[in-house]
Protein 1
Amino acid sequence: TMSKPALYYATLSPPSRAVLLTAKAIGLELELRPINLLKGEHLTPEFVKMNPQHTIPTLIDGDVSITDSHAICGYLVGKYGAAHEALYPKDLVKRANVDARLHLDSGHLFARLRFLYEPILYYGSTDCSIDKIAYIQKCYEILEGFLNDQTYLCGNELTIADFCCVATVTSVNDVAPIDEFKFPKLTAWLKKLAELPYYKDTNEEGAEELKTLFKAKLAENRSK
């Protein structure tokens, strides 16, 4: 028997949850290897040797190692999701569109979440400024624009871009709230994704856990 691909992950991590959503969508079982980020388990010599970027998720599939959530999602659909090709289409134009949204997540959405969260979660910061929050909310305007006349971020078919972006948005929408009157399409998109049968266990719980942890750490840092 083939051994299952192994995923080093944390439910707190939005990129980890994007990969878990992708695996669920294609019906792929992963061997899950939890990593505790707050305890620095991603900084051990063994982990850094496997992934010099020391990020999670990290996928090990036989002798293949892949270290970025967006790349992992595309790889899993390509290798194990033949029946679900629409998630990461082979058509060049459609794929380029999905890739563009994946870059939007890594370059803007997730980058801005990190800019706000990381100093507070890891370095005792108390800075949860209006500027940082507004910087995240600017991304909502972009997403609203892409969702203008379609159900999902790349048209009317669900793709891995939706998984990557929803994992990030739902991890930060307490501290950077989404105005449902200003962003009705974004609000509808979030509701639509929440209807997926595997969504609650795979994304919602981890997102809520991260938001709760963030608020607790911010309060703790401010009380010092």
Note: The longest helix spans residues 92-123.
Protein 2
Amino acid sequence: LAEESADSAYHSHGSSLEEEAAERMDDEEQERLLSYWQSVGRGHQVDVPRDMAEPIQQLTRNNNPQERQTIPFTLIQRKEKLGDLLYEKRHYGKAKWACIKMKEKQYEQSICLGFMKLMRYICEQNSSGLYLGITVPIVTIVHTNEAQSAMTQAVTVAYYLPEVLQDQPPHPFDSDIIIEEWPATIVYSRSFRGITNEDSIMREINLLAAILESPELCLRDTFIIAGYTNPAAANRHNEIWFLQRP
């Protein structure tokens, strides 16, 4: 009996040590990720608060390509020239999105702060108390003047709700996040890489406008930046979307 109780004590002590070690590694990972995001944030003049540590860790752990759900669309046309893809014409169906309006001094600040708020919503800060899952791309609606020569400060950062949540989206705890239903839309999409700021976005808008056969069919002052990698990534995969007039 003495041997059994000693054995049991050893195993329970051993398991508690393992748990402590796992917790310590967990905390270290959280600190490392938070520190990385804070350094990236400083580059965009954005303060990443300590309460983002858990959502950042949760999102990082679940950010495997096989875990992500791509927003469904129907490909209508691919326009190529000498083997290079110029743009795609796509149809996106009616769907619900979690949206937040931002109006920081710089575009990068708006998307970073908006994305952090959406991360909290995705990572259990919602009425279901569950991790909702990543969908890609995260999109940002931007506006320009009629001449397409400058962007306005107001943007909307939006997260497509996974298919299983489309009928009954969990309610956000953050009152700034609004669930909106967007109508079915025809989109002209062109891919580009790198950072997204006022200059790069205006360049991509002008580039796609020059390539399209009939740019007048699209809205002239409203565009979407679709991001397939998080704002902390250095070499991002992005798309510029022109929206066909209803």
Note: The two ends are 80 Å apart (CA to CA).
Protein 3
Amino acid sequence: VICQYVDYLVSKQNVKNVFVNGTTGEGLSLNVQERKQLAEEWLCQGKDKLDHVIIHVGALSLAESQELARHAAAVGATGIAVLAPFFFKPTNKDELIAFLQKVASEAPAVPFYYYHIPPLTAVKIRVEELLDGITEQIPTFRGVKFSDTDLLDLAQCINKNEREQFTFLYGVDE
């Protein structure tokens, strides 16, 4: 049905960019092979129809996130995103960036996005703080999928964006 869904999104909803294997699509409920298959199908069906297909590669296991990042790069994703680890949580910015860097480095030519969703991860490191110097450690860093209700943090991120060229994808289901 992905072919039909892509056609519907493009022709009826004027959607040109998708975020695959995220939380609304229950990507974390799928096994690694299912996530790979879904990413491949979106990329195949979206070819020449969608501008960007960002693949969420976050997983409970760092090794699985790295595997998914390598796969996304190999099959032509236009971006990858990862959420913070939510079992053994990072307690500060440096720990979070170190984790993100380990995933981003597996797809060194693919734009990288941090998926900030504290209601799911319980990692409450402010994104505005995270952005300071992040491109020195993650050269492919392009922005944030910001799924939190802390609009002050989002506004400070956007203000910081006047100096950087980051993209902020905002979405809170409520």
Note: The CA atoms of residues 143 and 167 lie 5 Å apart.
Protein 4
Amino acid sequence: DGMNMCMFMQNTLTRLTRLPLISVALVQGRAVGGGAELTTACDFRLMTPGSEIRFVQKHMGLVPGWGGAARLVRIVGSTAALRLLSGAARVDPKKALCLGLSEETLSSPDETGALEEARAWLSQYTEGPASVIRAVKAVVTAGRELPLEAALRTEKDIFGTVWGGPANLEALVRRPK
């Protein structure tokens, strides 16, 4: 049963990571164990005051099984990931910022205010033509997951889909050289 859940959750979180849109985990309270793994599947992580991320699998006689360890290494590096996983360390917003595990600590501790603040923060990355945002996400995903040569080919191919497209032509009209 554990292996079936592991495979299901790896598949689910990998699909989340590869969505053609930008995702953000808003951590309010505690993201512990599987919740911590879920945060690693998002493109960005935001935290509220008093929140924490903690990989407690060690205390359960386990390791992360949903892909959280592999993604954590890519986010914070192998040494920091080893410390977080082997120490089951509590990561508060300040430490998360230092490690690169979080992009920002929001000021609002209440749910409604934090959600609005997170939406405003995310808008700087999601404003603009959806086709371009999807293309940006695709080239970043390729760069993260593929060998360099394949990532370069993918980037070229995706570039070809936006070059001369509506967003590109509109931008040229707005800002002629």
Note: The mean pLDDT is 96.
